[in-house]
Amino acid sequence: MEDGRIIELFFERSEQAIAGLYDKYGAVCLRTAENILGSREDAEECVNDACLAVWNTVPPQKPDPLLSYFCRITRNLALKKYRANTARKRNGYYDAALEEIEDCFAAKDDVESEAEAERIYGCINEFLESLSKEDRVLFVRRYWYSEATEELARLFGITPHNVTVRLSRIRKKLKKHLEREGVTL
Questions:
Q1: What's phi and psi for 183, nearest 5 deg?
Q2: 98 in the same domain as 78
Q3: Final residue of a structural domain among 85, 102, 128
Q4: What is the average pLDDT value for the chain, to the nearest integer?
């Protein structure tokens, strides 16, 4: 089913909208949540909650692209659940991905203004567009979808060590790019 038709079904308040959304994008969102949480059951709960959130926000929202909208909601719910699950303990799997990327950004004691966040968003998108397709996919799959380096190595046909080295080089390039753009680090 096409995204436009799924959104029409949401506007009609048809339950087929949720089925269409889940059939088309549920597997991607489930994998993303499971990568973050490390638990199939928790991931399924997040995807179900994300379906409900989409139901509650469409209408009035008319997301384009629908996959990004659904995935962002799922990811945010998974991160919230992850934080709740690990409030007193460390989960080395997802913490490792966060620790890898955190050096590119400064820790802030106060909430950044929305304008600054938009500027940083634009800088990161500009940086990602400057990468080769393979490096961009590698970066996004690791830091957005939280895929393990072993899985990325298998997908790209390289060693896990090579994945780690490439990601390290990409992070260094990102940090330099952000510094050049005047993003405070």
A1: -75, 120
A2: no
A3: 85
A4: 87
